[in-house]
């Protein structure tokens, strides 16, 4: 459903040009749990942002359900970002003084969904991440692991086909990291999850596929033998 064909990304500033991606070709199935590993600056975030339609590629093609995005207009990218993609970041990006429920509902306020349905859907996704009893807490009263679960719930509110997570456990201790990974693994049962991580142990333990980048190129693409269950 998602395919990158020889994607390159150059960042230019003045006379400087950084080759952030140098011809990346990848094909993803509908329900994989993919970890992207590699040293700082190798292009992981750039790759995730291109897949998520947050950043445009310089050359190559991104195929969505077999359709080229070369002719995509702004409104096509908007629709893709809003309906196909969910994003989770290391820094949660929650509104600290609003309730958990409000934070998750907010993602739907511009979508034309009725207030009643917004609430019902927010409660459903919060239950899915194990926070059904914390609806009226505020993020500033929560632990990092709980905040990341709120952020995952928010990313799932539109039932996206693809969940992208940029170092979702980067700010968490190992115990809460495991809780978040368990949830992402569950989420990946019926959608594609692509995660950037600096933690090879978590990648080995939870993901069904590990892609290693080095200097803008894919250098390794394997299925860890230690993944809990074969998919
Ligand atoms: P990673 O996520 O693996 O740390 P990035 O995708 O953030 O790597 O960055 C890849 C390369 O592109 C790095 O050399 C980085 O400095 C450069 N880069 C990233 N974003 C920009 C930008 N907006 N402008 C210029 N260079 C950038």
TrEMBL record:
Annotated coiled-coil segments of the chain: none
Record's keyword terms, sorted: ATP-binding, Cell membrane, Membrane, Nucleotide-binding, Transmembrane, Transmembrane helix, Transport
Main location: membrane
Localization (cell): Cell inner membrane
ABC transporter domain boundaries: 2-231
Keyword Transmembrane helix: yes
Keyword Cell membrane recorded: yes
GO function terms (MF aspect): ATP binding
UniProt record similarity statement: Belongs to the ABC transporter superfamily. Macrolide exporter (TC 3.A.1.122) family.
The protein's name: ABC transporter ATP-binding protein/permease
């Amino acid at each position: 459903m998602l395919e990158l064909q020889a994607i390159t990304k150059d960042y230019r500033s003045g006379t400087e040009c950084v080759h952030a991606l140098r011809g990346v070709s990848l094909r993803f199935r509908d329900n994989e749990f993919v970890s992207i590993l590699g040293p700082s600056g190798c292009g992981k975030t750039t790759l995730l942002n291109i897949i998520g339609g947050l950043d445009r590629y310089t050359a190559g093609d991104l195929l969505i359900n077999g359709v080229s995005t070369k002719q995509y207009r702004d409104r096509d990218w908007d629709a893709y970002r809003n309906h196909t993609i969910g994003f989770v970041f290391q820094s949660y990006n929650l509104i600290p003084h609003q309730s958990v429920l409000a934070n998750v509902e907010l993602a739907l306020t511009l979508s034309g969904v009725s207030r009643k349905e917004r609430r019902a859907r927010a409660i459903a996704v919060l239950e899915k991440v194990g926070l059904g009893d914390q609806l009226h807490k505020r993020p500033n009263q929560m632990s990092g692991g709980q905040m990341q679960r709120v952020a995952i719930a928010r990313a799932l509110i539109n039932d996206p086909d693809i969940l992208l997570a940029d170092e979702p456990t980067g700010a968490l201790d190992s115990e809460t990291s495991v809780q978040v990974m368990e949830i992402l693994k569950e989420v990946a049962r019926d959608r594609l999850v692509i995660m950037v991580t600096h933690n090879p142990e978590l990648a080995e333990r939870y993901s069904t596929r590990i892609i290693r980048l080095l200097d803008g190129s894919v250098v390794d693409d394997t299925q860890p033998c230690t993944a809990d269950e074969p998919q």
